[in-house]
Amino acid sequence: MISANQKIAIVGYGREGKSLANFLLKQGMKNIVVLDQNQNLVIDQPLKFRLGKNYLENLADFDLIYVSPGISINSRKWDKVKDRISSPTNLFFNLCPAKVVGVTGTKGKGTVCRLLKKITEKEWPQKVFLGGNIGYPLISLLGNLDSDDLVIAELSSFQLQILKKSPPVAVITNLSVDHLNYHRTVQEYHQAKLNILRYQSKNDFAVMNLSLLSRVEKIGSGERFYFSLKRNNRSQAYYYRGWLIIRDGQVEKKIIKENEIKVLGGHNRENVLAAVLVSYLLGVPVKKISQGVSEFKLSEHHLELVLDKDGIKVINDSAATNPLAMIAAVKSFNRPIILIAGGQDKGFNYSQLGKEFEKEKGKFKSIILLGENKNKMSSIIPAGIEKIRVDLLNQAVEAARLRVESGDLILFSPGAASLDMFNNAQERGESFKKLIVSALNSKTEF
Hints:
Layout: E1 8-11, H1 15-26, E2 32-36, E3 48-51, E4 64-67, E5 85-86, H2 88-95, E6 99-104, H3 109-120, E7 128-132, E8 150-154, H4 157-160, E9 169-172, H5 186-198, E10 205-209, H6 213-216, E11 223-230, E12 237-240, E13 243-248, E14 251-257, H7 266-281, H8 286-295, E15 304-309, E16 312-316, H9 323-330, E17 337-341, H10 351-359, E18 364-369, H11 374-379, E19 386-389, H12 393-403, E20 409-412, H13 425-441
Parallel strand pairs: 1-2, 1-4, 2-3, 4-5, 6-8, 6-9, 7-8, 9-10, 10-11, 11-12, 16-20, 17-18, 17-20, 18-19
Antiparallel strand pairs: 12-13, 13-14, 15-16
Helix pairs in contact: 3-7, 3-8, 12-13
């Protein structure tokens, strides 16, 4: 445990930094300094602080440095203090008495976590908590946890990048490209994600997409289980002849009929497989797994049906913050699509997105682009697809209103982060829903 006399830095005073400060104060730590570039922060005593543009000067003054998610440690300032760096997530894993399921991936991790909670809380003998990137900050849970509780933790690459202890149960939904405005390379981003496996022992286990098999086999010592959309002799969870199947040894167990699963999209079918397989391995009975899946609906802003009126469907997928999630949404539908996309540029190479647009070219009626990356996205849209660039979301909605006809789908799936125009993806989604409902309710002819 940390000594009360150590000089501790908390770098970044956002949601997790504040939770960590409160926890350390309760543990009797007396010398805590908050480091943050926002010079207007109000820091309450007994915390000390260094604020403003030089907040990372003199890091060697500290015995222990907790780095909040999203703070880069790639500059030379950090080189001489590498052995003193930790994170709130690392501290949580070291101290947590409960069983932890850690879930990461480029897309789908939030859906897996929510479904896991819905399934496991039907059977788990004690409390089930949801935390990390969603739910509670993990460090804030420590005072409320017992050894019989279960914590389901959504973990971003930011939370995993300096992890030195993996959760006993790890889940990786998929790996593609994201956050290149933060990570220097795709490889660095993926290596951060793979820390979720790296420190597992032989008593731990991991559930992963079969597509990752060759990349993860030699990382960590935990037992491996895989899922895939189609039946495969290396998978323990898959779909076959209209059923979601769990293969336990040589026995195939039918869990739920595919047509009883309410979530849309092939990528979400994979998310369901991941959550079901983890639940089964944790000992949840098949009947309760089936019940949990059949009752589960996606949360707001994840392929959310906003309107179904006069043959027109409107889907809000504001939570799609990278191109892979956007393309997955496009692949989920088989009707003419008016796509509204674009947002904050996270450093992607959009050439692969152009290839995906070409594959799905026949689906698009129009693509309406806005946000910081609209010109980059516009440049890779194949010839033959109408593309419109606008400045504001209300202009995008109006452009969609003018083009939509009965039988069409308006799909709001930005494929980009929201911070160029909104505080978060939730605010962006709420704004879209209000605008599109108002616009289509005023449309008198279809």
